[in-house]
Model the fold of this input.
Amino acid sequence: MTKNQTNLLVKVQSAGYNHGNSALITVNDEEFGFESYSQGLNVALIHEVTGQKLCCTTFDTYGDEGSATAFAQFIENLPNGRIVALSVKDDASLRLNDRAKKACESLGSYLSYFLQFRSSWTMISQKNALPGTPEESLSYEAAVTCSRSFVVPSVSANGSTISVTSAGLDFGDVAQITLNGQGVAIEGGYQRGLNVVVFDSSTTIPILNQSFDLFANPTAADAFAQLIEDLPEGQIVAIAVKDDGFYNLSERAKQACEAIGSRLIHHLQFRNSWAIVGYKGASPGSIIENLNTSGAVSVKFWISSLISMNGKWQQKQKLQPSDLQSKDIFGSAIALSEKIAIIGARMAEVEGHPAAGSAYIFELENGQWQQKQRLHPPGLQRQDVFGNSVAISGDVAIVGAYFADAEGRPDAGSAYIFHLENGQWHPKQKLQPSDLQQGDYFGNSVAISGELAIVGAYGVDSEGRPNVGSAYIFQLENGQWHPKQKLQPADLQGGDCFGTSVAISGKVAIVGARLAHGESSQYAGSAYIFQLENGQWHPKQKLQPADLQQSDNFGNSVAISGEVAIVGAYGVDFEGYRDAGSAYIFQLENGQWHPKQKLQPADLQRGGGFGTSVAISSQVAIIGASGLDAEGRPDAGSAYIFHLENGEWQQKEKLQPADLEHNNCFGYAVAISETVAIVGAHNAHAEGSPYAGSAYIFATLP
Done:
């Protein structure tokens, strides 16, 4: 485990009715967050990459006929890899049907088929796990416990929680909706019928609340439907039934429930308990809900968990600092780390030095991205192009200036480290290896992960071979960034430009060489995988798909997240269109990186340049196509969102803002987290300032 990784310890305890009648799920020795544990199956979800709590709920497979099917649907809709913790209280076997057992099998369980009346059973697994691989324990005679550790890059803050409790008339006759443990008031109190609270998707503040007594007022169902229909997409909706929510429930009202992601609404019967947290625009079955015909139900939902739902991406904001000048090229490099973004403007004038370059820090506050700081370290000179490459990890940022000189060596290049201290970003160190020569272009690409940084220098020569290229590894030790290793594979040839692009994730780095030769094709391109072992970075694999052709430029962009890497090749042809572009997905399996998929949207055009830029975060990727036309506007640009679903990367969105103009080159740079994407259009005009540049913020719903 590297210093920037975290150990996540999940523990589950179960006691059947005769052995203690209890259940408990903890993460790092803290109770998960259940409102209460119920008889039947108690289930918690954790994000497999971030370690983030997603939701928890219960399924009364002892007393409720429909709970087994609801549980099965819940598991069936999970993405592969999702962490699932499960604990039985009292009994879970009585109404556990074959479909529910099949759902457990999809988690790798085999003990679910041996579950007996009031036995104790625990399981910790992941969706689509191999049979027999989960941690699970079953006993007919005693309580059981199991635990499992997961190593994740970091444990993200879990954020706000919404809890919904519902009890039909015969099961307590209550309804309650809470935000972060505090009850949310409804005008007139919680009444019989549907109790609804709408939360703003950006601020999580409750913005609407109302009760709809369908039993007493037949028109209330359509009033409820109208409320849902009028909501903007992405708004979060919590509903709790009190007494009864079925009588006079119209088909229109059911369709409104489907519009926030409900699938169980069609199973709701007279005086059932039903609780849901969904959002407008969700696909049915993609959110968290629960239904019980013989008892109360509750669901608890971390708002940030909507990153894992089938949400759409919408434009939220256009970034264009007020001090931009003509030809600043703002948006030519972008990086994102949680709620902080850094965006380069490599041609900006600084203190009278044309094209010295700068970079801007933005931070997400109250749903808006606010400009916080403009970075330009002391000593910048004319045409250093500081900001041509940027990267950020937590409170550390790195910015390249690949035209910077080094003591008589023009264009040797440099990179600068900044640390966030007391709310301000301070320049801490200038990186410039002592062996740099004229035209090495050190800093043309940068990446950072925790206490490790990698910097590309595609112009480095080697033993008489010009422009072979190299990449340098730096490590933070005792407050200083020290050069640790120079990467330069032995098979490189002159002009390969190794270091064109770099990315790093934990102990694995990937470096592109976009002009490397293929077996019979010039400039086909390649990429190299390196791994840190025993303090040294070792070349592990050369990536070069067999279908590459001349001038495909494979490796011009690279990105990596965990065991998945993506490599852009903007020069690939597509169905007769030259330079339409493509991107290739690779996955680590059994110690080898295997090509898994070639991505090429069906609407690509000649010169579209799909693959100009790539970024990936867990199961979401974004790929820029900066040369794509837009309704008569040549080279306006575009970007595409892909999601990993059932083992395949599926195109989900095409991003192309309506205000793009000719030659804006939207998509030249991209960055993504699971909730936010930023896309640069470095040739966009500002008012009175051509080619000032811009960047666009997109977010999932919510």
Q: What stands out?
A: The first helix runs from residue 67 to 76. The CA atoms of residues 240 and 496 lie 62 Å apart. The chain has two domains: 1-155, 313-700. Residues 1-5, 153-157 have pLDDT under 50 and may be disordered.
